[in-house]
Amino acid sequence: MHENFQIKNLEEYFKIYRKSVEYPNAFWEEIAEKNFVWREKWKTIMSGDFESTNIKWFEGAKLNITENCIDRHLDKQGDKTAIIFEPNNPDEKTEHISYNNLSKRVNKFANILKQKGIKKGDRVCIYLPMIPELAISVLACARIGAIHSVVFAGFSSQALSTRINDSKCKLIITSDGSYRGRKTINLKEIVDEALNDCSCIEKVLVVNRINAKINMESGRDEWVEPLLNKASDICEPEIMEAEDPLFILYTSGSTGKPKGMVHSTAGYMVYTAYTFKNIFQYNENDIYWCTADIGWITGHSYIVYGPLANGATTVMFEGVPNYPDYGRFWEIIEKNKITQFYTAPTAIRALAKENLKFVEKHDLSSLKVLGSVGEPINEEAWNWYNENIGKKNSPIVDTWWQTETGGIMISPIPYVTPTIPTFATLPLPGIQPAIMNSNQEELQGNQVEGSLCIKYPWPGIARTIWGDHNRYKQTYFSTFKDMYFTGDGAKRNEVGYYRLTGRVDDVIIVSGHNLGTAPIEDAINEHPNVAESAIVGFPHKIKGNALYGYITLKNTTNNEDLLRNEINQIITEQIGPIAKLDKIQFTIGLPKTRSGKIMRRILRKIASNEISDLGDVSTLLNPEIVDEIIKRRI
Ligand code: PRX
């Protein structure tokens, strides 16, 4: 992204922002025109609207995103490091992958995929730890026009098979196992179990990471390394249409199965590259590190595509923040002279409670920008981050966005936007937020609070839910007319800054992970002794929110703890350990309306210990149950 597209001061921001609202199409066209390699130019900049939900950007254009992320950098900066790989174990060598080397490895991997019969439009599932092959296989898919569906390698076999089946992946890329701190995890075993339920998978490609002895099913499973050794490192890019899907990434909904959000090629590329350049004020020779996993949107947009489209150096970290000790993040920053550091409030809170000596041991003076993402950052964590990591010298960018938005939407621009703790501040150019009340009216002016919507399409918006366009329409475009509904609440303060106040639906953000309550309840209800369940969130010091389950049983038990373990075991198997309940209360009933709906509002308040303010419960079908639940709350 050319320097001219980097906003340098607040006056310029307001000028550009105004232009982007008055002439959104011209605004994005100039960015697209001057910063990317196109095989053919677009015929239309933008078409469609939220009403008909058929949004298209740069239609008619042809491109390959890997030419933009790799090939075009080779002439001028082929030897520059594209990816720095920091292994789990600090004694293992850090790997520097140059753009030249990345190009060869991506092409080789792409050629293997082709050999295995993968063609443009086929879906490839990637279930890998944070090792270079994860980024490489993502890019290899993009090289040949296959649609990648990365599944976070902490998900269970059932969660994996649901995702594989939903988009009918033909091939899966995995590893024998993974390292996480002191633990090793046998990923291939999880894949084998998942594949018992997936008839669509024809081939399994296995990367060797932990030298495990694993089951290799003949005819189906193959080690990647010998194939790579033989493969050519030249692979012509598949020329894609602007609107061809680039990837599918699953995110939890408040009900039903996970939603496979589909992102396009050109719009996504333009949006992630532009936002990366501005939000991180990325300049040549900076070393940028985002601690997310590529299994989430943050990793897709701001470890892989956004940074590489800018020719940046991006760090991939395989491990965890507390191994070998709580100083690991700070050690990596010092060692690599990290300039931009992007992490989640949960990580900040967990590290802030440890002894400061873990931080003070390290020279963090290379840092210029600190980022936060995934959930609201509370004031205490913001201050700790600012004082101890940034030494009050590195602006904090509290970036609000979603899997669905493709890239950052509301955020300070460092050294441009004055920051206030807990405020994501101002929308990026091209983004038009609206705060709505429950009467479908947009609240004008400042000092208002309501549901956050976006009024005009931007290039990075997900185009559909895989296989279910109707659900896409229903979820995002039916609550407010002609607007994209985010599912979040927000306030606008007296100077027009936005503060995100949390989800307004039944999604709970636990340690930065989106968890829908319904899928967890469905899992719990499979226990033979569970009659009914309701899950709510409650505030948690480290995780932001934790899960509280109210469960009614078919038969009483004299071993509640055993039952609690069994219930969490089912959740772990069906969804993953991230969705385990912190508290489980067995109860003889749940508060219901006369039409039989569970009153979650009351359960939320009880779980959060706000029992003095329950509101009117007299209209309930069973008001007496409220006292009973309060008496026995945990
Ligand atoms: O509730 C918002 C919260 O995370 C949700 C999106 O989650 P996901 O799709 O997993 O994407 C996470 C990474 C972009 C949002 O609806 N959220 C994300 N960032 C913030 C946030 N809430 C408050 N402040 C943020 N900076």
Task: Quickly list its features.
Rossmann fold, binds adenosine-5'-monophosphate-propyl ester, alpha/beta
Explain what this protein looks like in three dimensions.
- This protein is α/β, with parallel strands linked by helices and 634 residues long.
- Among the domains are: 68-238, Rossmann fold (3-Layer(aba) Sandwich); 507-631, GMP Synthetase, Chain A, domain 3.
- 32% of the residues lie in helices and 23% in strands.
- The chain contains 19 helices and 30 strands.
- An 8-stranded mixed beta sheet has the order 12-11-8-6-7-14-15-23, sandwiched between helices. A 7-stranded mixed beta sheet has the order 5-4-17-16-18-19-20, sandwiched between helices.
- The longest helix is centred in the first third of the chain and has 17 residues, at 99-115.
- Residues 251, 297-298, 373-376, 398-403, 424, 486-488, 500, 503, 509, 514 line the site of adenosine-5'-monophosphate-propyl ester (PRX).
